[in-house]
Amino acid sequence: MIKAYETLSKQLHMLSGMIESLSDEQFIRPVSYLSGSTIGQHTRHVVELLQCLLAGYSSGTVNYDKRRRSQQIEQQRGAAITAIEELMMGFSLPDKTMIFETSLDEEGTNTTQVQTTYHREIVYNIEHAIHHMALIKVGLYDLGLDTSAVAAFGVAYATMQHRKECAQ
User: Fold this and answer.
1) Which of 1, 40, 98, 132 could cysteine-pair with 74, CB 3.0–4.6 Å?
2) pLDDT by residue (tens digit) across 128-150?
3) How many other CB atoms sit within 10 Å of the CB of residue 49?
4) Residues 116, 98: contact at Cβ < 8 Å?
5) How far apart are CA 41 and CA 38, in angstroms?
6) Which whole-number Å values give the CA distances from 63 to 10, 79, 114, in the listed order?
7) Assigned domain for 38 exists
8) Closest by alpha carbon to 38, among 29, 25, 51?
9) Domain range holding 17?
10) Structural domains counted in the chain
11) Residue 79 within a domain
12) Is residue 86 part of a domain?
């Protein structure tokens, strides 16, 4: 599982570095191509899912639907970077069986529980982070920023492998 921890650290480090490169205004600017959501909102979403997983570790139940939705992480780059740094220090935990709980309707009445593991949820959060980083990259384009220096930002590992195979 060490590789997954390294991979998650790499993704979070890229996310933090990208946030550091933005201005406060760029971080909270609504992006038309993202239905008006902001880079800050997508960052918060990534951070809060990982916070939920860590918070649920001791009880053995994770429910991403019940995340906090912190305005501070969403609107303040410094708070987002601090939250990411805290996550990077705390997610390297032993695997264990957990329960994943989620609602399957808008009212929140149709909930289900599925057995999972902590390591499985770490892998899910890696893929989830990459997905939202791809959306953030759309926001970077919308801001007119050059993203050539962060070519791997928001690109799935399987996609990178496929691109290498096609280039040969």
Assistant:
1) 40
2) 999 999 999 999 988 888 776 66
3) 19
4) yes
5) 5
6) 24, 23, 11
7) yes
8) 29
9) 2-93+120-167
10) 1
11) yes
12) yes
CA angle 136, 128, 49 (to 5 degrees): 100
How far is Cα of residue 102 from the mean position of the Cα atoms in its chain?
18
Q: The domain spanning residue 76 has which CATH number?
A: 1.20.120
Helix residue ranges per DSSP H, the chain? 2-21, 24-28, 39-57, 71-75, 77-90, 118-142, 157-167
End-to-end Cα distance, the chain: 30
Q: Is 99 helix (H, G, I), strand (E, B) or coil?
A: strand
Amino acid (1-letter code) at residue 57 = Y
The per-residue pLDDT for 88 is 92
CA–CA dist 137, 121 (Å, integer): 24
Q: Is residue 101 part of a domain?
A: no
- At 22, the amino acid letter reads L
Taking the complete model, does pTM exceed 0.85, yes or no?
yes
pLDDT in tens, 74-113: 999 999 999 999 999 999 999 999 999 998 877 777 889 9
In the sheet that holds 61-62, the strands lie side by side as: 61-62, 97-103, 111-117
